[in-house]
Amino acid sequence: TQLLEQSPQFLSIQEGENLTVYCNSSSVFSSLQWYRQEPGEGPVLLVTVVTGGEVKKLKRLTFQFGDARKDSSLHITAAQPGDTGLYLCAGIILTGGGNKLTFGTGTQLKVEL
Amino acid sequence: DAMVIQNPRYQVTQFGKPVTLSCSQTLNHNVMYWYQQKSSQAPKLLFHYYDKDFNNEADTPDNFQSRRPNTSFCFLDIRSPGLGDAAMYLCATSRGLAGFNEQFFGPGTRLTVL
């Protein structure tokens, strides 16, 4: 079983602050995805990182895939209340049965005015 | 808009009373997935269909079954719901299994077991 640990589990910050969420595993993944889930909704894909060391930016969000493809981070600059939600990393392993997502333990972010 | 639709959004059932959750998609994707997500936890894959081929996760209880009568629809049947089965059930689709196909999630059905 591939386990993805996210930290912190909960984060409550003020608008304008920066934050980093970490996603760590002892397993190597073919690629890694980050999702955001709002209350009462399904997860929505934010980004997929594929290459070890890859960095992708999505407006104020910066995603990095570790060199060994075992870990990833999500950095948010100048957080806004609209960033509030559950952030999930998900590792992908390509198997004979196809690509399977293993979700991380999740980080619940709350951004207050 | 192409999308993944789940009905109902909220379902209440009684302990031991069979219940069926529904998922439909307009994306014409080959793969449909069912996940269980308990409060404050990550989604956990129960099973998936690639076309008509059913793939069960090893740790999915026998109490959970699925049907996919056609490309567009997939059902989750819980034969005898227990209190521990109360959760959000998410349906997702992807174009294929190979590579890094994005999974598109529905809004989920929140199941309450009384």
Produce the secondary structure layout:
The complex is a heterodimer of chains A (113) and B (114).
Chain A lengths: L4 E3 L2 E5 L4 E6 L6 E7 L6 E6 L5 E4 L2 E5 L5 E6 L8 E11 L2 E6 L3 E6 L1
Parallel strand pairs in A: 2-11
Antiparallel strand pairs in A: 1-3, 3-8, 4-5, 4-9, 6-7, 7-8, 9-10, 9-11
Chain B lengths: L3 E4 L2 E4 L5 E7 L5 E7 L6 E7 L2 E4 L7 E4 L5 E6 L8 E8 L9 E2 L3 E5 L1
Parallel strand pairs in B: 2-11
Antiparallel strand pairs in B: 1-3, 3-8, 4-5, 4-9, 5-6, 7-8, 9-10, 9-11
Characterization of this structure:
The complex is a heterodimer of chains A (113) and B (114). Chain A is mostly beta strands and 113 residues long. Chain A has a single domain (5-112), classed as Immunoglobulins (Immunoglobulin-like). Chain A has strands at 5-7, 10-14, 19-24, 31-37, 44-49, 55-58, 61-65, 71-76, 85-95, 98-103, 107-112. In chain A, strands 2, 4, 5, 9, 10 and 11 form a six-stranded mixed beta sheet that branches. The mean pLDDT of chain A is 91. Chain B has 114 residues and is mainly β. Chain B has one domain: Immunoglobulin-like (Sandwich), CATH 2.60.40.10. Helix content of chain B is 0%, strand content 51%. Chain B is built from no helices and eleven strands. Chain B has strands at residues 4-7, 10-13, 19-25, 31-37, 44-50, 53-56, 64-67, 73-78, 87-94, 104-105, 109-113. In chain B, the strands form two sheets. In chain B, strands 2, 4, 5, 6, 9, 10 and 11 form a seven-stranded mixed beta sheet that branches. Chain B has a four-stranded antiparallel beta sheet with strand order 1-3-8-7, with no helix packed on it. In chain B, strand 4 (31-37) and strand 5 (44-50) form a beta hairpin. Chain B starts with a strand and ends with a strand. In chain B, 33% of the residues are buried. The A-B interface holds A 30-31, 33, 40-45, 48, 50, 88, 92, 94, 97-101, 103-106, 108 and B 4, 9, 31, 40-45, 48, 50, 55, 90, 92, 94, 96-108, 110.
